């Protein structure tokens, strides 16, 4: 961005899209963020990474407006126009930002790869750092770290490679039903609930289309509750009200269809829980945040075994960010509207000491 000495707004690059299977989810998150960023405070520059890995810069100072994911795709269309660039050409764009919002989900964006690039460039960014992002993306690593910190997680067996199978003793130990999950994917992509062991081979094949590491996990029967943690610029951690997910429409669990397509999925905020359970969830959410070395934000997905005993299911180091997504809705219920939530996240990123050393890049402001 060319520097205007009279423009004192914070220059925000919103980076979204990406090569993962969650490209469309990322575009939806970015549309919500771009719509809600206050143009009196921020000059917004959207940059889309296409599924082919093209970097497509949009207008340097995108006007205020109501944007949807399709609007962003039309505005930043990829190879069909001369605007697309490679990563090397995109580096000066990132270097001109005061702060980057990496609104990417899944591999190639939420897994520490992008965070490492931004730290190398010395550019502040919203959300979790390299380690927490990488650890949070890998469900097996997450489980190991949390278990070592004394936090309850579901029993699971890790299978490596294209041919790994689940021996009979481990099947007996896990029991049925069971879940098969890619270790490093999000939005429930490749996740299957197995009711009979005869279904296991097909479930493993589906999971392996997303990752060579696959978890076979016990089914924790109980309520599904999400808890959000937000870091403030002074380092204070705030925990939002618990949100309970109620799946309808015949969905067997909160899978991709239930998350993004089924109109019968409902969120109840605050969840109707006994106060001791709510208090334990708040305590555990902070423990998870600290055990993974998180910063900025985190959404923790809990399962309540028998309706009362919390078990950490998964974590999301950059959760969905549409206005209807769990994380912004939790904070709206807590009295922090979407636009103000973004203000806190950006202020925290600018106060963070992770990315303060600039790297020379051929660019001018």
Based on the coordinates given, report the CATH architecture of the largest domain: 3-Layer(aba) Sandwich
Largest sheet: 6 strands, antiparallel
**Average pLDDT rating:** 90
Structural class: alpha+beta
| The CATH top-level class label of the largest domain | Alpha Beta
Order of helices and strands: EHEEHHEHHHEHEEHEEEEHEHEEHH
Number of strands: 14
Shape: globular
Write down the CATH topology of the largest domain: Rossmann fold
Rounded to the nearest angstrom, the distance between the terminal CA atoms is: 5 Å
Q: What portion of residues is helical?
A: 25-40%
Parts with pLDDT < 50 across at least 5 consecutive residues:
253-262, 359-365
Describe the overall structure.
This protein has 365 residues and is α+β, with helices and mostly antiparallel strands. The protein has 3 domains: 10-127, Rossmann fold; 136-152 and 220-317, 2-Layer Sandwich (D-amino Acid Aminotransferase, Chain A, domain 1); 156-218, ATP-grasp fold, A domain (Dna Ligase, domain 1, 2-Layer Sandwich), CATH 3.30.1490. Helix content is 32%, strand content 21%. It is built from 12 helices and 14 strands. The protein has helices at 23-36, 69-75, 87-95, 113-121, 130-137, 139-148, 168-174, 200-208, 256-260, 275-291, 326-333, 338-351, and strands at 10-17, 42-49, 55-57, 99-103, 156-159, 178-182, 192-194, 214-218, 222-231, 237-239, 243-246, 266-268, 297-305, 309-316. The strands form 3 sheets. Strands 9, 10, 11, 12, 13 and 14 form a 6-stranded antiparallel sheet that branches. Strands 3-2-1-4 form a 4-stranded mixed sheet, with helices on both faces. Helix 1 packs across helix 2 (69-75). The longest helix has 17 residues, at 275-291. The protein is globular, with a radius of gyration of 21 Å. The protein starts with 9 loop residues before the first strand and ends in a 14-residue tail after the last helix. It catalyses: 2 D-alanine + ATP = D-alanyl-D-alanine + ADP + phosphate + H(+).
């Amino acid at each position: 961005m060319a520097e205007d000495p009279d423009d004192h707004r914070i220059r925000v690059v919103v980076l979204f899209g990406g090569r993962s299977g969650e490209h469309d989810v990322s575009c939806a998150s970015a549309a919500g963020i771009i719509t809600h960023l206050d143009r009196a405070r921020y000059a917004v520059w959207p940059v889309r990474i296409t599924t082919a890995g093209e970097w497509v810069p949009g207008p340097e100072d995108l006007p205020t407006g109501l944007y949807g994911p399709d609007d962003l795709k039309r505005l930043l269309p990829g190879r069909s126009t001369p605007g697309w660039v490679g990563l090397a050409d995109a580096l000066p764009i990132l270097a001109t930002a005061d702060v980057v919002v990496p609104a990417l989900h899944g591999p190639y964006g939420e897994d520490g790869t992008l965070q490492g690039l931004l730290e190398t460039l010395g550019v502040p960014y919203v959300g979790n750092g390299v380690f927490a992002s990488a650890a949070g993306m890998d469900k097996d690593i997450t489980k190991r770290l949390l278990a070592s910190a004394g936090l309850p997680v579901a029993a699971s067996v890790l299978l490596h490679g294209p041919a790994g199978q689940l021996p009979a003793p481990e099947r007996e130990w896990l029991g049925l039903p069971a879940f098969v999950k890619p270790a490093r994917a999000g939005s429930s992509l490749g996740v299957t609930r197995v009711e009979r062991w005869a279904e296991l081979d097909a479930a493993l094949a589906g999971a392996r289309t997303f990752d060579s590491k696959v978890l076979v996990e016990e089914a924790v029967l109980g309520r599904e509750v999400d808890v959000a943690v937000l870091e403030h610029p002074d380092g204070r951690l705030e925990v939002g009200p618990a949100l309970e997910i109620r799946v309808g429409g015949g969905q067997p669990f909160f899978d991709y269809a239930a998350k993004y397509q089924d109109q019968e999925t409902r969120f109840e905020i605050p969840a109707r829980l006994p106060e001791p359970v709510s208090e334990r969830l708040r305590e555990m959410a902070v423990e998870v945040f600290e055990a993974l070395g998180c910063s900025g934000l985190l959404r923790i997905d809990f399962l309540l075994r028998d309706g009362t005993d919390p078990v950490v299911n998964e974590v999301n180091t950059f959760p969905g960010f549409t206005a209807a997504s769990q994380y912004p809705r939790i904070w709206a219920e807590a009295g922090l509207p979407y636009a103000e939530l973004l203000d806190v996240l950006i202020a925290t990123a600018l106060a963070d000491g992770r990315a303060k050393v600039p790297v020379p890049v051929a660019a001018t402001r």
